[in-house]
Amino acid sequence: MYKIGFRTETNQNKQNDSTVVHKNTESARKSLVDVYFPDRHLTCSYYNDKFDLKLGDIVYVDGKLEGLRGRVTDINYTFKIKLSDYKRVISVADTGVTGEIFMAGSHFIANKPDVLPFEKVITWFKAPSENEEFVSSTDNEKFLLEDLKGLKISNSTADLGHDYYMENRVIYIEIKDGNVRAIVNGGKPYEVEFNYRNGEISGLVCNCYCTGTCKHEFATLLQLRETLRLIDKEYGDKFYTDYLAVINKGVFFEFVIDNKSNGSFKLT
Ligand SMILES: [Zn+2]
Predict the structure, then answer these.
(1) How far is the CA of 176 from the centre of ligand 1 (A)?
(2) What is the pLDDT of residues 125-161, one digit of tens each?
(3) How far apart are CA 121 and CA 58, in angstroms?
(4) What are the residue boundaries of the structural domains of the chain, listed by start?
(5) How far is the CA of 101 from the centre of ligand 1 (A)?
(6) Which of 113, 125, 180, 197 is the least crowded, having the fewest Cβ atoms under 10 Å away?
(7) Which residues pair with 172 in a beta bridge?
(8) Residues 71, 259: contact at Cβ < 8 Å?
(9) How many CA atoms lie within 13 A of 223 on its CB side?
(10) Nearest partner of 70 among 82, 83, 62, 61, judged by Cα
(11) Do residues 214 and 206 make contact, with C-beta atoms less than 8 angstroms apart?
């Protein structure tokens, strides 16, 4: 039972952390930071007064490079600048992960909700979108995950989705009380959502604005099916009840392990 107390404490710490990450903090020291954008092989300077940044932090900025992932490579606290000359750091990825991770083929899995929650993982791929309103609607199509023949999809889209699945582009899936959220790398990250209850899929939507079933959705279904089969085979049906997180191994190493100068993990 002692673990429950420990976990509650961890939770509180995490909540504080995410407050620091997402909200303006009075305590953040004004800094001028160099940010390296690997996609552009480019380093630029940004003004920051919102976050307590550390070297290696993954950040998103406003201005021309908005939406591109950058890494903090230098932090200066002594400077004098004309503020209007500088764009700002607008968010920091929350890459601190604690808890038990299990292996499942191409992906790692966790069965505790505080290890790899969607709200944390999505900060690795994009800045929080503010003042955006989303509307979605789905038909009442229902089908079994183990019988995808029930899914309406064109052959060409199914082929592309299968390629995505084989290329391990489904980088994250979370099942929480029957609601599934996934992130698929299709050049930029796409978010797929659906319900999964008693082996049945319903309410399938993706934010790529395609009409009908898209390759991101199909790839997610194939990955989920593979991972659930693996879990059943290797860990049994008691491994998870109402919560499961699935993450691509490469993504986990890139964001959680690389650039950390301390921390540990234990293999069994
Ligand atoms: Zn899509």
Answers:
(1) 21
(2) 988 876 666 666 666 789 999 999 888 999 999 999 9
(3) 12
(4) 28-92, 102-257
(5) 28
(6) 197
(7) 183, 247
(8) yes
(9) 34
(10) 61
(11) yes
Ligand 1 centroid from CA 153, angstroms: 12
pLDDT tens for residues 166-215? 999 999 999 999 999 999 999 889 999 999 999 999 999 999 978 889 99
> Residue 149 burial (CB < 10 Å; 0-12/13-18/19+)?
exposed
Sequence-ordered alpha helix ranges (H) in 142-266: 155-166, 215-234, 249-252
For the chain, give the longest Cα–Cα distance.
63
Distance 219 CA to ligand 1 centre (A): 9
CB 217 within 8 A of CB 192: yes
CA 193 / ligand 1 centre spacing (Å): 10
What pLDDT, on the 0 to 100 scale, is given for residue 8? 34
CA–CA separation, 53 vs 195, rounded Å? 37
Closest CA to 55 of 268, 259, 267: 259
Q: What is the rounded distance in angstroms from the CA atom of residue 172 to the CA atom of residue 125?
A: 11
DSSP state of 200: E
186 CA distance to ligand 1 middle (Å): 8
Q: How far apart are CA 98 and CA 113, in angstroms?
A: 11
pLDDT tens digits for range 13-28: 444 444 344 444 556 8
Q: What is the mean pLDDT of the chain?
A: 88
Task: For residues 173 and 180, give the distance between their C-alpha atoms in angstroms, rounded to a whole number.
Answer: 7
d(CA 116, CA 247): 8
Ligand 1 centroid distance, CA of 54 (Å) = 34
pLDDT higher than threshold 60 for residue 216? yes
